[in-house]
Amino acid sequence: MAYTRKGIRTNEIVPVDLNVLMAANYRIMAHFFREYLENPRKAKFYEFLAESVSEAIEALFRDGSGGIWFDFDLSERKLRRRFFPSNIFPLLLLDWSKGDKAKDCETVIRYLNESGSLEFKGGIPSSMERGSVERWDFPNGEPRLVHLTAISLLKCAQFNAEAYPMAKRIADGLLTTAFNGLFNPRRGMPAQLWEKYDVRFDDGRSGFEGNYIPQTGFGGTNGALMDLIKIFYTKNNNKNK
């Protein structure tokens, strides 16, 4: 049952990405209460929550030998040392990190270079599980994951010279395939933005959706594309080029 819906154990997997998003949202709430509502008590409360989750991320998900973060399997009581873009999402919390930021960035960049995930024209895959037929695995690339991967790497731009070019290359893969799918689609294919793309190509072909047909016009794709264009192709944001 490997790599199929029959074998998933979602309720037994503690995810890196969800915890990172929780910690980041607590930071936003702390800033909101301090700067806009002038409520330092509430701000301090959310700062405490952010610190608590951030410490838990380091304690539970960090691989002590390799330095990368992995989901934790409750039933097997061990880290799931497989490639997913979310393995680097804790970089989103780098601004508040008390650790060696330059070392963390170097570790992540080396990990990505060695993972094989950067070898594809259309961005970065949602996993490297080549034996899977599910929509959340290779060769599918999910635009929102590509977006989060790119902005995670941008957190390292001031600490590592490879970070910005790597982030831009990943973003450009998605932007190119999305552009081609909408304005230069393959013969016989509709001009569309897709929920997922096949990262092996940059011609705009959709990813494989598994148990339902490929979805078009997708809001998440639109949002990811717009923000990546803003980050990498507008004058006010393109400061690290």
Automatic annotation (TrEMBL):
Keywords: Glycosidase, Hydrolase. It catalyses: alpha,alpha-trehalose + H2O = alpha-D-glucose + beta-D-glucose. Its EC number is 3.2.1.28. InterPro entries: 6-hairpin_glycosidase_sf, 6hp_glycosidase-like_sf, Glyco_hydro_37. Gene3D superfamilies: 1.50.10.10. One of its GO terms (molecular function) is alpha,alpha-trehalase activity. Belongs to the glycosyl hydrolase 37 family. This is Trehalase. It comes from Heterodera trifolii.
